[in-house]
Amino acid sequence: MLNRKIEYLDKGVLTLKTTMLKQSKELIGLVLVAIFIYFFTFWDYKEFQTLVSIPQQWLNLNTIFLSIVIEAIPFILLGVFVSSLIQIFVSEDMVKKYIPKNAFIALLPAALLGAIFPVCECAIVPVVRRLIKKGMPLHIAFVFLACAPILNPVVAASTYFAFQSNMSIVVGRMGLAFVLSMVIGLVIYLFFKNSNQLKVTSEELLGNQPKESNPLQVNKWKATFYHASDEFFDMGKYLIFGAFIASLFQTFLNREVLLSLGSNEYSSPLVMMGFAFVLSLCSEADAFVAASFGSMFAPGALLAFLVYGPMLDLKNTILLFGYFKTKFVLGFIAIVTVIVYLGVIMYQWIF
């Protein structure tokens, strides 16, 4: 009896702490919004600039940070909306019904699904998390995560327009993404099987996980927007942190060192993979940036940039650490890095 009372007391204290934490977060959010509105409405930037001399590098940092956030927000909104549609309209039975039972055969449909799903790397993490919660196997979900930001029609079109004079880059990008994503899924299956790698939320610890909405009680579309708004603000903090780190690298990274390291056939793909990671460009736009490096880097290095960046960059890495267990995320980073590098090197040897 005493142990049960202590257990109830501990659960009550945890509930109180969780409630206070949520309220403090909401209060901080409201204060930040009020500060933003005040500065946006009343602050005279030109007058401030005459009083305080701000180094040009920090002005560049501000511009890059805002550009990353503004570029990512529409795709984040798309991602959380798709995630919410899955939450409300897709049942676990439906997910299990259309996934082949064989773990290896299921790799191919997952890669094909990525070719028709218009989601970039900014939005893919919440979609994948929701699919896993609905019963999709871990390795299949990460095949989709790896290939969808590259194989989708919008990215294919942008890559075509950026490299019209070099179609081997277009074909190479799509082909490598398709094959390597399945290899990544296979390796994840071999190392992690179908173990649960999602982080446990405070609501799940307390047994207060939200239940599926009853269609007779709550309008499904209204519930979809509720889920989308909650998930958007939950993801927002990771997006802002990742965008800030990426803008720091873009501002202070020495381009001359980058070019000197990129002259070697074996080191240049690694350099461009690192460059893609820290730049955190949206996959719909990265082909035009890669095309600007065409005179300085070999096609293999450009492919490493175009394949690795959408699979793994600072923004989605921060999101992955927010929603998945640390050990798994570190393993995923290592798997993607090794497989993409070896895939690009093999591509260079063959073609």
Explain what this protein looks like in three dimensions.
It is a multi-pass membrane protein. Belongs to the UPF0718 family. The protein is mostly helical and 351 residues long. The chain folds into 2 domains: 1-53; 55-350, no CATH class. 77% of the residues lie in helices and 0% in strands. The chain has helices spanning 2-42, 45-51, 56-89, 92-98, 107-114, 124-133, 138-151, 153-162, 167-192, 202-206, 220-252, 255-261, 267-279, 286-292, 299-311, 314-323, 326-350.
Write down the domain tally: 2
Uncertain regions spanning at least 5 consecutive residues = 208-217
- Beginning-to-end CA distance, first to last residue: 73 Å
| Helix-strand topology string | HHHHHHHHHHHHHHHHH
Query: β content, as a range?
Result: under 5%
Task: Estimate the global geometry from the Cα principal axes.
Answer: globular
Transmembrane segments: 27-43, 63-90, 102-128, 140-163, 175-192, 287-308, 328-350
Membrane topology: Multi-pass membrane protein
Family: Belongs to the UPF0718 family.
Subcellular location: Cell membrane
Keyword list:
globular; 77% helix; cell membrane; membrane; transmembrane; 2 domains; single chain
